[in-house]
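We close this part of the discussion by returning to an individual protein. The sequence in question and its C-alpha cells are set out directly beneath this paragraph:
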Amino acid sequence: MTATPVPRTDTAPDGDPPTGAAPATDTAAAAEHTAAGPATGAGAAEAVEALLLVDLQTAFVAGDEAVPDAARVLDRGRALLARARAAGALVVHLQNDGAPGTVDEPHTPGWELHLPVQPGPRESVIRKGEDDGFDGTPLGALLDGAGVRALALCGVLSEMCVAATARTALARDFRVVLPHDAHATYDIPAAAGISERVPAALSSRAAEWALGDEVEIVPRAADVTFTAPRRGR
C-alpha cells in the first residue's frame, strides 16, 4: 500500500455519509441506478470458510491520519472476526510492510495490527510487500491447504489492497464476498482540471463496482456467515 494518508476533512458517524458526500437524494438515485448491476445483493450470503482482514493497521485506522470511516470498519471487522472464530473459519490478518519512512514501515507504531490476533492453526498473520495479499506470500497455499473455496474480505484501502486481493482471489476461482460497510479508503483530493474532491465513500463504492460481476457485494457485514473449511471440520 503506497497511498499517503489524506488529512481528514470529516468524521462521519457510523452509518452516515461523510461531510461532502453526495446529497441523500443523489445517493439514493445512484443506488437505484446501480442496484440492478451484477453481484450486488441483499440479505445473508451463503457461508464462507475464511476471513481476510486487510491491513487493519494502526496507521490507517487510528489517529489523525486514519481513514474517515475507521470507526465503522473496525466495528465491522471485530464483529466479522468474532463470528469467524466462533464458526471455526480460517482467519488471516494481512499486514502491509511499507517502504522506509512510510506510516506502515515495519516495526513502527503505525505498522502494528490494530485488532488482537489469536495465533493458532486457524488464525495467522501474513506480511506482504504489495497491494495484492497473494503476491509473494503463502496466502494461496494456506487457503488451498485448508480446503477453502469461499472467503470474505474487510479492511483498507478499498481501491488498493482490498481490491487487489479480491481480484486475485477471484482469478484463483475463490468465491469472494465483500461487505459494503466493512472496507474504507481516503478522500481523493481535488485535482485541477480533473475533478473536485471525491468523498471516500464514493471511492469505496466505485472500487466495489470495478471488481466486476463475479464478486458478491453484500450491504452489511452482518450479512456474512461463516463455516469451518471442509478440511478443518
Observations:
- Confidence is low (pLDDT under 50) at residues 7-38.
